[in-house]
Write a structure and sequence with these properties.
Elements: H1 3-10, E1 56-59, E2 67-69, E3 78-80, E4 83-86, H2 94-97, H3 119-159, E5 162-163, E6 168-169, H4 174-181, E7 184-185, H5 188-198, H6 209-212, E8 218-219, H7 222-231, E9 237-241, H8 250-266, E10 270-274, H9 276-283, E11 286-287, E12 291-292, H10 294-309, E13 318-322, H11 323-340, H12 343-350, H13 358-368
Parallel strand pairs: 9-10, 10-13
Antiparallel strand pairs: 1-4, 2-3, 5-6, 7-8, 11-12
Length: 378
C-alpha cells in the first residue's frame, strides 16, 4: 500500500531502519507482511508464499549496509549484515511470487503498534485466539448438552403421555395414540370412498368440516361400515354423554355435531346413552349420615338432553335414554358381558385398583350393552 497512507494508519513503527528515510526516486509503495495474526517483520520487498520462491540472498556492502564495528581492545564487536532476496529462482511460478498480504482494512491495527520485533505481541494474539477457540468450543459443548437435555426431557414427556377414559396428560403423540388404541389413520382413499357413498348419493352436500380439517383423523371398522352402505345392509349409530354439568360446552358438543352429520349422511337410526349412573359412581357422594346425591345426576341428564336435541338429530330415528330409567331392557346383555369379561381385563383397560368401588368395575358392561341391537326391543 502507499507508504504515507500506511504511516498515517499504523504509525512509522511499521518501517525498518532502512525505510525510515525514503530514498530519492524510490517507490512509495511498501508491503506489510501478515502471517497468522502475528507480524514477524516488515520487509521492503515482495512477500513470497514459501521459502522455495527465494532465488538468491545478496549481501549489501558499503557504507550504512553491512559492516563490522569494534575497537582494538574491545572484547565485543557489532556485526551488521544487510541483505536482500531475489525471486529469480528458475522454477519460480507466478503463484509462488504473488504477494500474500491481506487488504489493509483487514490488518490488526493493535498488533502493528509495537516498535520492536513482535514476538511478545504474537504470543498475546495466539493466547487470545486460543482462548476464543476454547470459549467457542465450550459454548458449542454447552449448546449440545442443552439440546441433549431438551431431547431427553421430550422423550420423558412422551413416555409420560396418559390418555384414558378419565385423564389426558403429557405431550400427546397422535401416531403413538393410534397404535395404542388399535385404530387406523383415515387415508385419502378412505375419505374419497366416504365422500362417494354420502355426497355422491346426495344425502349431504359435502364432507363434514371435521373430516376435511383432519380433526377426526383415525377410525376403527369404518371400512366395514362403508361395506354395509354399499350392500344396503342396516346398521345404527351409538354415542353417549355422561352428564357432569348443567350445560354442555363446545368441547362436549363436538362428537354430537359430527354424529348428527353421520346420521344425515347415512340416513340411519341413532342411539344416545345418558350415563347418569356412571357419573354418580365416579363423582357422586355417599355417606351413612346424609345419604347420596344420585338424583342430582339424574337431573343433569334432563338438562344435557336439551342441548343434545338442539344439535338437529332426526327425531324419528333417534332414541335418547337414561341408564337409570332404561337399564332394565339392557340387563340381559349386561349380564352376558359381565360373564365374558374378567376383572383383570377391566382393571387393565381403565386403570382401576383395589380402592375402586364395585360399581366402577361393573359399569363398562352397561356402557357396552347399547352396541347390541337386542338391547332395544321394539
Amino acid at each position: 500500500m502507499d507508504r504515507q497512507k500506511a504511516i498515517e494508519k499504523f504509525g512509522d513503527c511499521i518501517l525498518d531502519q532502512s525505510q525510515k528515510k525514503p530514498k530519492k526516486g524510490a517507490d512509495n509503495m511498501i508491503t506489510i507482511a501478515w502471517i497468522g495474526n502475528v507480524i514477524l517483520a516488515v520487509p521492503p520487498g515482495p512477500v513470497y508464499s514459501s521459502t522455495k520462491s527465494v532465488g538468491r540472498i545478496v549481501l549489501e556492502r558499503g557504507n550504512l549496509t553491512s559492516s563490522v564495528t569494534a575497537g582494538k581492545k574491545a572484547r565485543k564487536c557489532e556485526v551488521v549484515l544487510k541483505f536482500h532476496c531475489t525471486g529469480d529462482h528458475p522454477e519460480l511460478s507466478e503463484s509462488d511470487a504473488a504477494a500474500s498480504s491481506p487488504p489493509a482494512d483487514e490488518i490488526n491495527t493493535q498488533s502493528l503498534l509495537a516498535a520492536a520485533i513482535r514476538f511478545p505481541e504474537g504470543a498475546t494474539l495466539k493466547q487470545a485466539a486460543e482462548q476464543k477457540e476454547k470459549a467457542a468450543a465450550e459454548e458449542a459443548a454447552a449448546a449440545q448438552k442443552q439440546e441433549a437435555a431438551a431431547s431427553e426431557q421430550k422423550n420423558k414427556k412422551d413416555e409420560e403421555m396418559v390418555v384414558n377414559a378419565f385423564e389426558v396428560s403429557g405431550v400427546i403423540d397422535y401416531n403413538k395414540l393410534v397404535d395404542n388404541f388399535g385404530s387406523k389413520l383415515i387415508s385419502e382413499e378412505l375419505l374419497a370412498r366416504l365422500e362417494r357413498l354420502t355426497v355422491g348419493r346426495g344425502t349431504v352436500p359435502r364432507l363434514h368440516r371435521f373430516l376435511r380439517r383432519n380433526i377426526f383423523f383415525s377410525h376403527r371398522d369404518l371400512t366395514r361400515l362403508l361395506d354395509c352402505v354399499e350392500k344396503n345392509e342396516p346398521f345404527y349409530l351409538y354415542t353417549g354423554r355422561g352428564p357432569s354439568s348443567g350445560a354442555m360446552h363446545l368441547g362436549h358438543l363436538v362428537p354430537f355435531l359430527f354424529t348428527q352429520w353421520l346420521q344425515k349422511a347415512f340416513n340411519c337410526p341413532l342411539v344416545i346413552q345418558m350415563t347418569d349412573d356412571e357419573k354418580f359412581l365416579f363423582k357422586g357422594e355417599y355417606s351413612d349420615e346424609s345419604g347420596d346425591n344420585l338424583d342430582y345426576f339424574a337431573n343433569l341428564t334432563i338438562e344435557n338432553a336439551r342441548d343434545i336435541i338442539a344439535c338437529g338429530f332426526d327425531p324419528e330415528k333417534t332414541f335418547l335414554f337414561s341408564d337409570l330409567r332404561y337399564v332394565g331392557s339392557m340387563y340381559p346383555n349386561i349380564v352376558r358381558i359381565w360373564k365374558s369379561v374378567t376383572s383383570n381385563q377391566v382393571n387393565n383397560i381403565f386403570g382401576f385398583d383395589g380402592s375402586a368401588n364395585i360399581g366402577k368395575i361393573a359399569f363398562p358392561a352397561i356402557q357396552a350393552a347399547p352396541s347390541f341391537p337386542s338391547s332395544f326391543p321394539v
